[in-house]
Amino acid sequence: MLSKKAKYAIKALLALADHGREEPMRIADLARKEQIPAKFLELILLGLRNQGMLQSRKGKGGGYLLARDPADIYLGQIVRMFDGPLAPVPCASQTAYVPCADCRNEAVCGVHLAMKEVRDATAKVLDGTSLASLRTQVEHASDLSSPTR
Amino acid sequence: MLSKKAKYAIKALLALADHGREEPMRIADLARKEQIPAKFLELILLGLRNQGMLQSRKGKGGGYLLARDPADIYLGQIVRMFDGPLAPVPCASQTAYVPCADCRNEAVCGVHLAMKEVRDATAKVLDGTSLASLRTQVEHASDLSSPTR
DNA sequence: TATTTATTCTATCAACTTGATAGGGTATAT
DNA sequence: ATATACCCTATCAAGTTGATAGAATAAATA
Using an 8 Å Cβ cutoff, are A76 and A86 in contact? Predict the structure, then answer.
């Protein structure tokens, strides 16, 4: 399951990508736009900033803005940050491998084998999708759902 | 994350597939073989039986055995049974769709779009892997890791 | 038929995680 | 100065997870 934190983070970052990197956006505005509890969002944005994904400005006219180009921010990084490794089991993780205590031989473990496939499939999607490409996809999808003519 | 229940279930079912469908296997033996707390495994096997994946026999010479051919038992069914839908968010689930309360328009939601891809990728793996095919994979993998000559 | 064997079922628990809120601290623009 | 808006830490209720306990039930067999 994707946590609310990760979900809110993606939504907020997408909104910031839409907003552009010229001027910052306030927590309160982001919260209202994306229907996220403001105080909770505050925590999330703080985390994203400490990870270097966001920049912030204090005081009047302040707020948050993307620290990098939307094409260089991948969903994989966001999800890992809030929900940990993508792999369903630690022994199948590429970025945070931990062996199972109860596993004698990983090479002969069906769970390991299958979950490694799941992790690879998930990583392919999330590490292959940037904020920029996701925006494009959304745009294309909305074209299809409400055509101009 | 895969729950321990789902993980133990897969391991137990694999062991039962190895064991063959001629005679049943006792909880205690399964627990020892797979390093699973016996009382906990008991609960899991009971669930699998109530789902029709296992058959049981009481009394002496009793135990559990697969109710179906290993080629007809898919990881997707097992995982869904213990951990719920494969999709990271309910609005991306095929088998248990629930819309997000905070989502105005699903067609324009980046989270929805991306997570639908993740769920499809996961489902492709888990609904495409049966106990039988997983056994084959494990066999092949162990051939590679410890060759005969 | 008494007894052993092994599953069935329900209840309970501690530990942990999650989603969320509260409230004061700090930097900045005007 | 002062209003604005982010920064940071603490705290909390509710839910979930992994696990254990113990008695009830069914089946084989001596």
Answer: yes
Tokens of B77: 């069914």
Residue whose Cα is closest to the C1' of D21: B39
**Inter-residue contact B126 to A118 (CB < 8 Å):** yes
Looking at residue B47, what DSSP letter applies? H
Q: Which tokens is B13 given? A: 């079912």
Q: What's the pLDDT score for residue A149?
A: 46
For residue A95, what are its two tokens? 């970025």
pTM summary value: 0.95
Q: Which nucleotide is nearest to A42 (CA to C1')?
A: D6
Residue B89 · residue B112 · CB < 8 Å: yes
- Residue numbers in B near A142 (CB within 8 A): 105, 107-108
- Of B149, B98, B136, the closest CA to residue B17 belongs to B136
Strands A54-57 and A63-66: antiparallel
Task: Band the pLDDT of B143: cuts 50, 70, 90.
Answer: confident
- Which H or E run contains B64? strand B63-66
Sign, Cα dihedral of B138, B140, B141, B142: positive
pLDDT per residue over A14-23, tens digit each?
999 999 999 9
CB-closest option in B114, B126, B141 to A75: B114
